[in-house]
Amino acid sequence: EADIYQTPRYLVIGTGKKITLECSQTMGHDKMYWYQQDPGMELHLIHYSYGVNSTEKGDLSSESTVSRIRTEHFPLTLESARPSHTSQYLCASSEPIPSSGANVLTFGAGSRLTVL
Amino acid sequence: KNQVEQSPQSLIILEGKNCTLQCNYTVSPFSNLRWYKQDTGRGPVSLTIMTFSENTKSNGRYTATLDADTKQSSLHITASQLSDSASYICVVSPGATNKLIFGTGTLLAVQP
């Protein structure tokens, strides 16, 4: 069972509203990520963090912002939602495999956002 | 351009049958290749991860192979079950970064 939790799982809101998608992990991982995924499409990295007070933008430009005040918490905020923000948002955290150093990602169940 | 291409785009098989999913990549440099299973409406779950020196890795009924020379990987599912119905995503890491290159996935439907 995954130890990374996202809320809400589903959210339908009107244009212009401010929303925050919550992500928490109990594994003590330093690295955390936000991905955006549209139906039938690949995941795109929009934000990542190496640890507390560290946030970086990913490959896909996003109007969302993130914060990392605590190791276990990595919320994503949209100040003014628009229909173009409709998508699935996946949070993940990672730890390196001792033998290879590769980071293994553990994903949350996702937050599906619909902006009307 | 770093790319990961998967085939087929979708596949329907009968319960109990085997199937093989393909992944071709043009990512360079290459660090490792992962296969994830993503159930509808859920986040991806890791199945296998292979470095360039590994040719095959198994996880239960899932067996992944890697040919780093031809830049191809496959995921073989043995004795499929209804619960195998999901999207299978190939992901390549281009090196000592956090930037992963995702394929669009193969959507597998296992029918009774």
Give structural notes:
The complex is a heterodimer of chains A (116) and B (112). By secondary structure, chain A is an all-beta fold. Chain A is built from no helices and eleven strands. Chain A is 0% helix and 47% strand. In chain A, the strands form two sheets. In chain A, strands 2, 4, 5, 6, 9, 10 and 11 form a seven-stranded mixed beta sheet that branches. Chain A is globular, with a radius of gyration of 14 Å. Chain A starts with a strand and ends with a strand. The mean pLDDT of chain A is 92. Chain B has 112 residues and is mainly beta. In chain B, 0% of the residues lie in helices and 55% in strands. In chain B, the strands form two sheets. In chain B, strands 2, 4, 5, 9, 10 and 11 form a six-stranded mixed beta sheet that branches. Chain B is globular and about 40 Å long. The interface between A and B is medium-sized, with 28 and 23 residues.
Instruction: Summarize the amount of helix of chain B as a percent range.
Output: under 10%
Averaged pLDDT of chain B, please? 93
What ranges of chain A have pLDDT less than 50 throughout 5 or more consecutive residues? none
Total count of strands of chain A: 11
Structural class of chain B: mainly beta
Q: Could you tell me how far the N terminus lies from the C terminus of chain B, measured between alpha carbons in angstroms?
A: 41 Å
**Helix and strand string of chain A, N-terminal first?**
EEEEEEEEEEE
Helix content of chain A: under 10%
Coarse structural class of chain A: mainly beta
Structure annotation, total helices of chain B: 0
Total strands of chain B: the figure is 11
Q: Identify the quaternary structure here.
A: heterodimer
The fraction of residues in strands of chain A falls at over 45%
Overall, the morphology of chain B is globular
The rounded distance between the terminal residues' Cα atoms of chain A is 33 Å
